[in-house]
Amino acid sequence: MTASSISAAAGIAAPSTDRPGTREVYDLSLPFRRDMPSYYFYENRYQPPMFTVFSHKEGTPLGPETKDGYVTHVSFLTHTGTHVDAPRHFRDDGQYLHEVPADRWLGEGPILSVPKEEMEPITAEDLERACAESGLDVRPGDIVGINTGWHRRFCGPGEDRDQAIEYMERNPGLSRESAEWLVAKGIVTVMIDSPAIDCARFMPYGDSSFQSHYALFAENVPAVEGLGGQLDEVTGKRCLISCAPVRYENGDAFPLRVLASPLP
Ligand SMILES: [Zn+2]
């Protein structure tokens, strides 16, 4: 195993800076597996991703003649792990996932440090302070990432059920005013390391106002939720960011891989 193979903490391959011509690319995604926290803990309708082995080289489970490869079948709630909400998720006049222009999935932007504890809303002043302290700014056309530190609480219920429920139901997040601050800056997409863009106070465990969802989606700004992975390593930097989901027709949301490369 070489130094650039696997970073043990996150289980993510380290950037391959030893190859000429390659960028330093960081993976800001959570792992996608069966042991995932998910919505509907609160209604006792917990729905983890379900994986079925469709075909395997040993011939299972379809019979001995299916030895040509390893194929799985997966079913999951679209709002699982690192995923993006399309504006249509909350607004009848919002764009479905396939209608979101591609320029919202690839671009530049700052990854801001906004440390928050459980149930704490992010204010517009928090975002201004994060910019001032890092020397970063938010520009029209930016994809903005927010690191509250909450991603460090991520775990599956198989690992620690209480912590998994806490991760889903007590998260910090945006409020209407901080969402409107970002919209006024002309951003194209926002990303956060909590499982919902709204602070839990505005989710079904709180007042169900979904206020930042509505504020963002009124302007067709998609919300990437559940950042994780190597997020800390690019926080405080301006990056080239890729966050494209599957082109799911009439989709409300879909998991995605978020990649970031710090700009010089
Ligand atoms: Zn979602």
How would you describe the overall organization of this protein?
The strands form four sheets. The protein has a nine-stranded mixed sheet. Helix 1 (124-134) crosses helix 3 and helix 3 runs parallel beside helix 4 (211-217). The protein contains five helices and 15 strands. It is an alpha/beta fold and 264 residues long. It has two domains: 12-17 and 24-37 and 77-262, Glucose Oxidase, domain 1 (3-Layer(bba) Sandwich), CATH 3.50.30; 40-76, no CATH class. The chain has helices at residues 124-134, 157-169, 176-184, 211-217, 231-234; strands spanning 6-7, 12-13, 26-27, 50-55, 71-75, 83-85, 106-113, 121-122, 143-147, 173-174, 189-192, 223-225, 238-242, 253-255, 259-262. It is 17% helix and 21% strand. The structure holds zinc ion. Residues 79, 83, 85, 225, 253 line the site of zinc ion (ZN).
Give the number of DSSP strands.
Answer: 15
Radius of gyration: 19 Å
**Any idea how many domains?**
2
Distance between the first and last residues' Cα: 29 Å
Outline the low-pLDDT stretches: 1-9
Biggest sheet strand line-up: 3-15-13-7-9-11-12-6-14
Main β-sheet description:
9 strands, mixed
Query: What ions, cofactors and ligands are bound?
Result: zinc ion
Instruction: Calculate the mean pLDDT score and round it.
Output: 89
- The CATH superfamily of the largest domain turns out to be Putative cyclase
